[in-house]
Design goal:
With about 400 residues, the protein is of the alpha/beta class. The chain has 15 helices and 13 strands. α5 packs across α10 and α11 runs parallel beside α13.
Length: about 400
């Protein structure tokens, strides 16, 4: 039996007046996801537990079948796992964005979606200037990087209140700095990084090209080393993860799944959709389970870019869902689960904690007569998974759905 999970990050949304009251999912051409909804089971799932922050870390841990109240420690350590950074029990890992600061305003949470090559040079410059035996900076992908605070728990750095930069684009930097005991440690690093980065040649070139510079770091998403049971033991399956972002790949490594790197996977609009689908199909030749994650719809939501969000959804449907569906459509022993991890409405440009839709198709699943894959249609379903961490059990262990 093959189990395939396809996640369009941030794909769900709200009705938009400019689309005649439709959501981007309803406006997009999605024949393959529509087929799965029509021939399978459509429902809703609560991927963000009550009182939890609506982030991709929380949502994807939930989708994988883990209770975040037991196993979630923060986003940083998940990304550290993929970067191969060893953490001691009292270390604290922080997500470290490269952002664009203009005066006291956080202009761009992604520094113009800076390239990994440019960003790596900038992060290494920060590490050279600010790195110590206690604080180290590690380059990741595009604007997404990492800081490790050795023995950071001794200073209670894991307890600080830190705001994700994508939640405060266009807002005051000083008013949204980390808060809590010893927050001054982080604030100093962030402020010092600005003095360093504003003098970097790469940023001068980006300004000349009218591109947003990576002229400051933003620290958030901190946490200590997690201890999670292996997915492979929990479900007695071999499996793999395919994604462009360290968060998902690191989570996969922690729970014992193979991480497949696709060369053209960028975590943005230009990601290699077909490359990811082909890698998934090949992985399933030897594995029982594959988890494919596409970041592009979420990035479009954060950018408030309706056109690109619709295009990202259509590419996900055509090149990921469609190619995998064609490879397995005439086979018997498989199931496909398609869902967003959370909603990222273009009108809000940030994540929300609303329930999201999901559809399951394959062996043992009876069609319920749904018309298409959309938020509105899912609201007609009587299937609501209030405990989102039970969805994976439902998907894998239920004989009939």
């Amino acid at each position: 039996m093959k189990y395939i999970v396809l996640v369009g990050d941030g794909m769900a949304d709200y009705p938009i007046e400019g689309l005649g009251g439709r959501t981007p999912l309803e406006a997009a051409r999605t024949p393959n996801m529509d087929f799965i909804a029509q021939q399978g089971r459509l429902g809703q799932v609560k991927t963000i537990p009550d009182k939890a922050t609506p982030g991709s870390d929380v949502a994807n841990i939930t989708i994988f079948g883990y209770d975040t109240q037991k196993y979630y420690t923060g986003r940083g350590p998940l990304e550290a796992a993929n970067l191969g950074i060893d953490m001691e029990d009292d270390d604290v890992a922080f997500r470290c964005n490269l952002i664009t600061a203009s005066g006291d305003i956080l202009t761009d949470y992604s520094a113009g979606h800076i390239s990994s090559k440019e960003a790596s040079i900038l992060i290494k410059a920060v590490d050279k200037a600010l790195g110590t035996n206690r604080f180290r900076f590690f380059p990741g992908v595009s604007y997404r990087h990492l800081m490790l605070a050795k023995r950071g728990a001794e200073d209670h750095l894991d307890q600080l209140k830190c705001i994700p930069p994508h939640d405060i684009a266009g807002q005051s930097i000083s008013k949204n700095m980390p808060k809590g005991d010893n927050a001054d440690i982080l604030i100093r690093l962030m402020e010092e990084s600005r003095k360093i980065l504003e003098n970097e040649e790469i940023n001068h070139v980006r300004l000349d090209l009218k591109e947003n510079p990576g002229n400051m770091i933003w620290l958030w998403g901190q946490g200590k080393k997690p201890a999670m049971p292996k997915f492979t033991d929990k479900y007695n399956l071999t499996g793999s993860v395919i994604s462009a972002v360290d968060l998902i790949k690191g989570l996969g490594r922690i729970i014992g799944l193979d991480v497949i790197n696709v060369p053209g996977a960028t975590g943005y609009y230009d990601t290699d959709y077909e490359g990811k689908a082909n890698a998934a199909i090949k992985s399933l030749e030897k594995n029982d389970f594959v988890f494919v994650h596409i970041e592009a719809p979420d990035e479009a939501g954060h950018n408030g870019d309706l056109r690109e969000k619709i295009l990202a959804i259509e590419r996900f449907d055509q090149m990921v869902v469609g190619n995998i569906l064609r490879a397995y459509k005439n086979k018997k022993n498989f199931r496909i689960l398609v869902l967003p991890d959370h909603a990222t409405p273009v009108s809000l440009r940030t994540h929300v904690a609303d329930n999201v839709l999901f559809a399951i198709y394959g062996k043992g699943i009876t069609a319920r007569g749904f018309l298409n894959y959309s938020e509105k249609e899912a609201q007609k379903s009587d299937l609501l998974m209030e405990r989102g961490c039970e969805l994976m059990d439902y998907f894998i262990k239920s004989e009939e759905i």
